[in-house]
Amino acid sequence: MALGPLDLSIGEGECLFITGPNGSGKTTLARVLTGVVPVASGHIRMGTGLDHSNWPPGTVGWVQQNPRQQMVGATVAEDIGLAPLWLGKTWDEAVAQGQHSLREFRLEPWAEYKPSHLSGGWQHMAALAAVHAQDPTLVILDEPDAMLDSSGLQRLLTWVRFLKDRRQTLLILGHHERWEEVADRVIRLEAGRLIADETTSCRVNEEWRQFLEGWWVGNDKPTVTEVMSELCHGRLNI
Amino acid sequence: MSWQIEHLKIPHSHWEIESLVVPDSGIWGLVGHNGAGKSQVFSRLISWSIHSKAARFGLVAQNPMLQLTEATVWDQVTWPFRRGRTTLPRETYNRVSQILEDWDLLDLRQQEPWQLSGGQQRCLALAAMECLAPDVYLLDEPLENLDRTHQRVLESKMRKWGKTAAVIITSHSWQWLLTIASAGWWCHEGLIPGDLGDLWYRFAGRPETPLEDLWRRLLDAKIPVTPRAWTDPAWARQEAVKIWDGGIIRQSTL
Predict the structure, then answer these.
(1) B104-113, pLDDT tens digit by residue?
(2) Is A42 in CB contact (< 8 Å) with chain B?
(3) What dihedral angle (degrees, nearest 10) is formed by the CA atoms of A60, A64, A70, A73?
(4) CA nearest B127: which of B78, B81, B94, B91?
(5) Confidence band for A106, pLDDT divided at 50, 70 and 90
(6) How far apart are the C-alpha atoms of A192 and A189, rounded to whole Å?
(7) pLDDT at position A203, please?
(8) Phi, psi (deg, nearest 5) at residue A157
(9) Which pLDDT does position B245 carry in this prediction?
(10) Domain check: are A98 and A147 in the same one?
(11) Which of A56, A232, A204, A106 is nearest to B33 (CA)?
């Protein structure tokens, strides 16, 4: 897949949703940023001007579209603990970090399983936990919601909000509109080119979101009757 | 003709399907939490179909790259028809070309499958399966990696396939399942058959949208709404107006 020419600036702590049709270059962009695919020309630089080839190990944490490809540990627990170990943590620190990640993603029952014996959804969860344990500067999530059931999705969304609160730089690649509400910017690619770069604040129907989110989350709940009244009179734009 | 399968042992999950009737047509959902054993049910069904020779079951796996074995896109979809021939019969050639065109893969026919994007790989696996025209399509999370355009292609194809073959799909998107399939099974240490709307109400996890949550609360309160109406805002509004005008919602204690 040919990508670019592409000029893209990502602010520290920004959350970008990168979307586009199949084959538009989303995953290729992730591969370029992680160094798996070399750039033919041009530069990728971090804030201080540090060139891509000199980024310290562990700068980028990447959850791939097919997470099985990135799992190298003999067990799920080992796989999750490997990154901190490689990045210079002591054995005890790596184990502690791994255990914390296992708990965060509710993977304890699967800790001693071979990664290949997990279902697709749990493999995805284990890959997210491994990146969490790695604690990278830039997190890239390639279709992170794929194959997740509703509770897995909630854990993912909670983690993404946690990363956002920590001002961790985050690139989410995918198709689902849910990420447009989470991200600060939406980048649209087509045939390897950037065709749109939108901030998200103006695209959400604030009235609808605030009204129902308040009710949904449980703060100042309007009653179902009130919501139905709004709904049937067409005042809620769904 | 439908297929009756009995005592299907599911490895790793340590449970058994005592009896399963695979229908001969229509679109059916196989739903369950992560790790429930849905993919294993599919792999056991494939194994059963190979050994019993009763029907041709075709699987598009969760990770389609695992089943893309040929050197080019064209080879991937034509190898079952070549049988030592260098050229395909005209009718087969036209049919395969049309299928590749439908999935936007005709221009990529000389590409190596591993060079395709994740979405294109899934399209290729689906196209290869369509070329074989099995009696039963087993599609494991077919929606994943597909953009909107190809999701619509998939839906239209599934509706077409479902007229003459059974199409069984797994997905975690209840919204999508409820718009495309009428019935199916909930997978949890066995298979519970049922209407998908009922299975959603009984087993779905935390609602993903406020409207889904609203519908669950209405059903909890025994308000007579159609369980799957929340999947379509226009349908939901229509039902809302009906029960509002009928005074049902005002009389409730909600």
Answers:
(1) 999 999 999 9
(2) no
(3) 90
(4) B78
(5) very high
(6) 6
(7) 46
(8) -65, -40
(9) 82
(10) yes
(11) A106
Give the A window 87-106 contacts with B, CB below 8 Å: none
**Do A231 and A136 share a structural domain?**
no
Return the minimum-mean-pLDDT range out of A218-222, B4-8, B147-151, B244-248. A218-222
Same domain, B59 and B170: yes
Tell me whether A148 touches chain B (CB under 8 Å): yes
The predicted model gives A4-20 an average pLDDT of: 90
- State which H helix or E strand residue A15 sits in: strand A15-19
Which residue range is the domain that position B63 belongs to? 3-203
pLDDT of residue A5: 82
Interval A156-185 mean pLDDT: 92
- Chain A / chain B CB contacts < 8 angstroms: 128
Can you tell me the distance from the alpha carbon of B41 to that of A149, in angstroms, rounded to the nearest whole number? 17
What pLDDT digit, counting tens, does each position of A126-144 carry? 999 999 999 999 999 999 9
On chain A, the residues whose CB falls within 8 A of the CB of B140 are 120
Closest listed residue to residue A118, CA positions, set A66, A158, A159: A66
Chain A residue closest in CA terms to B241: A232
Q: Are residues A211 and A175 in the same domain?
A: no
Average pLDDT of chain B, as a whole number: 91
Interface of A with B in 121-140 (CB under 8 A): 121-122, 125
Picking from B37, B65, B240, the nearest residue to A228 by CB comes out as B240
Q: Are residues B50 and B25 in the same domain?
A: yes
Minimal C-alpha gap between A135 and chain B (Å): 25
| Interface membership of A224 toward B (CB under 8 Å) | yes
Q: Which domain holds residue A210?
A: 205-238
Given this model, what pLDDT does residue B252 score? 54
pTM here? 0.88
- Is A26 in contact with A19 (CB distance < 8 Å)? yes
pLDDT of amino acid A204 = 45
Q: For B244, which of A117, A215, A229 is closest by C-beta distance?
A: A229
DSSP E strands: which ranges in chain B? 3-10, 15-22, 26-31, 57-60, 136-140, 166-170, 183-187, 191-195
Query: Cα separations (Å) of A70 from A83, A104, A115, A126, A128?
Result: 11, 20, 10, 10, 11
Nearest CB to A150 within list B150, B172, B236: B172
Question: In the structure encoding, which two tokens stand for residue B143, read together?
Answer: 């929606």
Residue of B nearest to A31 (CA): B117
Same domain? For B109 and B45 the reply is yes
- Return the residue in B67, B73, B145 with the most chain A beta carbons within 10 A, the one to mutate for interface testing: B145
Q: Which amino acid is at B254?
A: L
Is beta strand A193-199 parallel, antiparallel or unpaired with respect to A185-190?
antiparallel
**Which CATH number covers residue B163?**
3.40.50.300
Are residues A123 and B34 in contact, defined by beta-carbon separation less than 8 angstroms? no
